[in-house]
Amino acid sequence: xxxxxxxxxxxxxGDFSDQNLDSPGNELIFSTAVVIALLSAPAVMGNxxxxxxxxxxxxxxxxxxxxxxxxxxTDFLTGLISQPLYAxxxxxxxxxxxxxxxxxxxxxAIEIIAKVSANLFVNITVATMTVMSVERWLHMSRRSxxxxxxxxxxxxxxxxxxxxxxxxxxxxxxxxFAEPAFxxxxxxxxxxxxxxxxxxxxxxxxxxxxxxxxxxxQTQANRKSQNFGQPAIDLAxxxxxxxxxxxxxxLFSMCFLPFSVSNAVALITTAEVxxxxxxxxxxxxxxxxxxxxxxxxxxxxxxRRGLKQLLAGLRTYILSTN
Length: 322
What we know:
With about 325 residues, the chain is mainly α. It has helices at about 25-55, 65-95, 95-100, 105-145, 150-165, 165-180, 185-225, 235-265, 270-300, 300-320.
């Protein structure tokens, strides 16, 4: 999902290796690298708290929580591996290029690990978010029709999709290191993959909205006819759940849409404004790993309650040891 351009000004991730170190374009790359480095700490800490809360089992875990923990693992690894290595390479390359020239093997290793891991984790994030939206749709459909579901089978299928989705893009991305001409294939794959996932997510959330709306109308009709039968789903609970998923979808759109658009523009032009747009949009992509866990804590009562119990237990343990 991250790209390399075969041009004189940019060789990878919007790098400007041939520019003067004091040029405006280079200063933008340096600034974005600093921001990405700073974002790694909240990404690691926030997702570690989410994982500890879910794995502590203070509440009933569902297939949704399994997918959510997978997303938290991916965001955690993004903050732990991809962001620090990417920022480190950019900062050293911009401000102390002689270090890279004197140790090309080390510089190349850092660059490859940072970019390959970022490409892998971002593709997994997009796949996980898509699977999460479909899981909510299927869950709501089964609850509304009072049908049972096989949770283990759904988890297996979700995990399989998430693991297989990044492979084609990752293979093409690795080829770009040896043959830069593959970059245009990668750009097209990025756009197609993201567009496909975005359409699936939009459709899934629309179907969930339809289910909620249909049951809301049925409840109103039952009240008018004085038929107070038990509704198939708890509307208040699921309306709040849908609102939470909408916030997640909006955050996903804010962080990933600009990067997808900048990739599309990069197929048409190599103008300097495109270079700047890709670097700024890259910051937004990494920003999602930092904001996701705090959004879960804010919107999901079971996560928030479990986190409070976890922190209370840690506080008690610390006081007892002292």
